[in-house]
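A quick aside before the break. I want you to see a complete sequence-to-structure record at least once, exactly as it would be stored in a machine-readable document. Don't worry about memorizing anything.
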Amino acid sequence: MINECLKNGINVSPVPGPSAVSSAVSVSGFSDKFYFYGFLPEKNKLLNNDLQTLSKLNCSLVFFVSSKKFNKTIPFLKKYFNGRKILICKEMTKFYEEFFIEEIDNLKISERGLKGELTIVISEMNKLKNVSQKLSESDKDLIRKTINKLSVKEIVSLISKNSVTSKKEIYNYCIKLKNEN
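That is the input. The structure line, written in tokens, reads:
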């Protein structure tokens, strides 16, 4: 029912409850099976490790992110969750509440002057089995930078460690670039 409302442009608001987590999941239109992580780590290495692990879970994922740190997390979200959707909840159940649903691949650095704590919900993998096989722009960029320095096998191995993209898709992109040169 939530998805039908969202498709038809009908605003959906959660009823105030005991948790921003359940309120956000209830209006996301994503799977009601979810994993709540909490606040993302500050250090890039920990953030990479945790998001890589979480990207393999087949459920909605819920995070808290400080609005001041949200822009810093966008490249990491694009790297590990390409092909998925994201719901960004601001000021939930308050007078100025706002919800933004976006394809993660289309996320841009926010200039909105976000304040406070954001509740983020990332969609599950189920809906994207066929969609998520496309290479992200950051993966394509890495391939372009390394195509003349590494073998195709090495590039496929490197990219597939941190991506949900199939090895075949990575290989095909490498061969396409090699043939263009």
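Two observations worth writing down. The radius of gyration is 18 Å. The chain has a mean pLDDT of 84. We'll return to this after the break.
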